[in-house]
Amino acid sequence: MNKSKNKDPDILKIGDTSIKRGERVDLSLKVGALYDHTPLSIPLEVIRGKLGGPTLFISAAVHGDELNGVEIIRRILKRKELNQLTGTLILIPVVNVFGFNNKSRYLPDRRDLNRSFPGTSAGSLAGRMARLFIKEVVEKCTHGIDLHTGAIHRANLPQIRACLEDVKTKELAQSFGVPVIIDSKIRDGSLREAARKKKVTTLLFEGGEALRFNEDVIKSGVKGCISVMEKIGMIKKSPSKAAKKKKKVYIANNSFWIRSPHSGAVNFFKSLGDNIKNGDLLATVSNTFGREATNVYATEDGILVGLAMLPLVNQGDALFHIATFKDTTKVKKALDIYSEDH
Ligand SMILES: [Zn+2]
After folding, report:
1. Ligand 1: distance of its center to the CA of 149 in Å?
2. Does some domain include residue 314?
3. pLDDT tens-digit map of 132-176
4. Would you tell me the crossing angle of helices 215-231 and 68-76 to the nearest 10 degrees?
5. Residue 258 sits in which domain range?
């Protein structure tokens, strides 16, 4: 309790801006300039409730081409619940502003911002941006949600990735409400790792494709962020929702990629969320005349959580990301109920 009090002071300072309880403020964190000296900043909105409580950040486009999170935040900003907030919400629709403007995952020097945390103020552009974000946002929070999509030419089933060894993180992951959770060991240099080291309970949501707005994924993300805010007491649960049965969520035992045995063109026979059985025909890879076809089979039972979208592959390219569960039939059922609810 003490900790969250320290992180929710009467006057919150971000950059040069002081924000009092009950205020809603737009501000920009200056990160640098373009080649022509045009200044570039990270835009963010801070919404403070009259009552103290948790401080949550929701960030998107740490990879500049991952747009679903941008739309998720735009929709959260319109929610009426924010007028009755307890605690503080910090929304950052675009973290990697350089990549976003170039429709690119990376920074102009090809560095990946999500491998550059916690960063240093004397380092590369990526390192400086990372440090600024940690200092001005993450260190001021008790909780965080970082929104991602699949990398370019890959689509992902909406899923939560979190380090489930930590009980608080596990509870938060379950409260998000998407049926599939993947226990994901921390990635070196990621925002999630840097936040965990600062004792900020953080989830990563990912779904859909880069450079697209995927409506189902966006709805899942909005719902999930609102559920997390209800769970940590920032907004009140509506009575009709409270009466609803708790959504079933499942934690994957493991996940693995099936790769292409050859270079060529691919015909895919499975879709995201499909219940895959060991031995199922997943795809064929053949040459440009449609000859020399090689079948690709499943090697284990599981749920299809990630899929290549480009039908041209080199040998060894990732085709299918499959998560394994104790009982895939139950997971499939939960996924069907979840998508009907949308
Ligand atoms: Zn990403």
Report:
1. 6
2. yes
3. 999 999 999 999 999 999 999 999 999 999 999 999 999 999 999
4. 50
5. 253-341
